[in-house]
Input
Amino acid sequence: MQENLIIIFARNPKLGKVKTRLAASIGNEMALKTYTLLLEHTAKVTHQVKCDKMVFYSENIEKNDLWTPYKFIKVKQADGDLGQRMAHAFNHAFAVGYRKVILIGSDAYSLQSKHLETAFNALQNHDVVLGPATDGGYYLLGLKTIIPSMFKNKKWSESSVLEATLGDLKKFNIHLIEPLNDIDTFEDLKKEPQLLKQLNIHD
Output
């Protein structure tokens, strides 16, 4: 067991259940393909970082899927809103003995291993590390201990999440890393030409 852990929140990739806002523009099948490519990218990038990794599934744990070859620890997300599910994941990680924990989603195609390594390094001297998403949320959260207030009373699907979270953390030493594009809509997807090319989509 390492001291550092990366938690990945991932939806089970099922037709009609992922990237619904994106699907409104490109259809369910292409949205599923997009999300599968995002999951594969996230798995490859996190695998490059020397630490333990846990993938938290939204619905059920898949025994043999794209995460299996990487030997990630597999866990099911708790019930509740996003804040409750993230708080549960951090509590679980700290309870089993991890010292520095980073949680990410699986929507940032521009995420690289350097962002994760930078976040772990920043946790040496900071209480909290955040990776802002360009839509007003965040794609990465790093902690050394649970801070309950940051997981409560948030409108998780809205663009106020990062600002509201920073408001809860005024007493803490925070480090912000490079902002990245979270892919939720076709406008977000158009900012990732390499991904468009893989999908054979022309904007």
Notes: The chain has a mean pLDDT of 95. Residues 15 and 29 are 6 Å apart (CA to CA).
